[in-house]
Specification:
213 residues; single chain; alpha/beta; eight-stranded mixed sheet
Amino acid sequence: MKTVAIIDYGMGNLHSAKKAVEHVAPDATVLVTDNADRIREADRVILPGVGAIRDCMAEIRRLGVDTLVREVSQDRPFLGICVGMQALMSRSEENGGVDCIDLFPSQVRYFGDNLTENGERLKVPHMGWNEVYRTIEHPLWHNIPDGDRFYFVHSYYVEAEGNADIAGRSHYGVDLAAAVAKDNIFAAQFHPEKSARAGLQLLKNFTDWTGKC
């Protein structure tokens, strides 16, 4: 029986993520845990996240989750969600600049207070459904039509331009990395657990994924 560990560092949609994974993988054991040994023993690991990156990174470092993430993301399927994706980047410009876990070299940028599209002001945060277009073929896109819609809630984004690790692209005033991937790591800016059929399919793909592309 496969085990999926959702890292509990006090930030993230832990309950909804757990329920969604249990729904798509009823035979799996899904744990919400801060126990490092149980996380190390899991077959798959999810790093969720909501809120301000400074608060998230403060808890991640206080609990040693940064070191644990660097360890467990090397040898098994690993999924970052929302701020959990941003935490995997090198640095965020939020709150004057926050160093992150640095598994990906990308920077996290602010949408800005004057974000516009075709002359119209866009609200920040970017909240709601948006299309995601894959930029690479990947097992986590299996059975998900290109351009399908996922649910986003964020004021900061990972740059798409020049991003060698981008796996999916969206547009909200600017092009943004909706997903990134490298080796056995996949991370999404959107919330798959809130994204209806497409999100559940992505989570099912993750629970089936061997970590190889």
